[in-house]
Amino acid sequence: MQVSLDISLYPLNADYAQAILSFISQIESEPGIEVVRNTLSTQVFGDFHQIMQLMTKEIAQVFSEQPESVFVLKLVGQNRAPV
């Protein structure tokens, strides 16, 4: 099943920019999914199970390093990648 994920990360500390860029770089390195950066959020397109496994791993990593971080996720049950 193909899905679209819109994700925003809000690290509640002074070094927020580096934490966001590092998170995005990690998800961009995953083969088989499409990642689109925007000014307000990042969009991820691809297989549901692959994306959810990736998010579980990468969100846990952020929380282990910066537990004061906030994530906002929106999930759509189809691939809505830009054409």
Outline the fold blueprint.
Elements: E1 2-10, H1 16-28, E2 34-37, E3 42-47, H2 48-65, E4 70-76
Antiparallel strand pairs: 1-3, 1-4, 2-3
Domain Thiamin/hydroxymethyl pyrimidine-binding YkoF putative: 4-57
Protein name: Thiamin/hydroxymethyl pyrimidine-binding YkoF putative domain-containing protein
Organism: Thiomicrospira aerophila AL3
Q: Care to describe what's here?
A:
The protein starts with a strand and ends in a 7-residue tail after the last strand. It has one domain (2-76): Alpha-Beta Plaits. It is globular, with a radius of gyration of 12 Å. Helix content is 37%, strand content 31%. The chain contains two helices and four strands; from the N terminus they run E-H-E-E-H-E. Strands 2-3-1-4 form a four-stranded antiparallel beta sheet. The model has no long low-confidence stretch (mean pLDDT 96). Strand 2 (34-37) and strand 3 form a beta hairpin. It has helices at 16-28, 48-65; strands at residues 2-10, 34-37, 42-47, 70-76. It comes from Thiomicrospira aerophila AL3. It holds the Pfam family Ykof.
**Biggest sheet, spatial arrangement of strands:** 2-3-1-4
Helix proportion:
25-40%
H/E element sequence: EHEEHE
Largest sheet: 4 strands, antiparallel
- Total number of domains: 1
Q: Nearest-angstrom radius of gyration? A: 12 Å
Organism: Thiomicrospira aerophila AL3
InterPro entries: MTH1187/YkoF-like, Thiamin/HMP-bd_put_YkoF
Domain Thiamin/hydroxymethyl pyrimidine-binding YkoF putative: 4-57
Protein name: Thiamin/hydroxymethyl pyrimidine-binding YkoF putative domain-containing protein
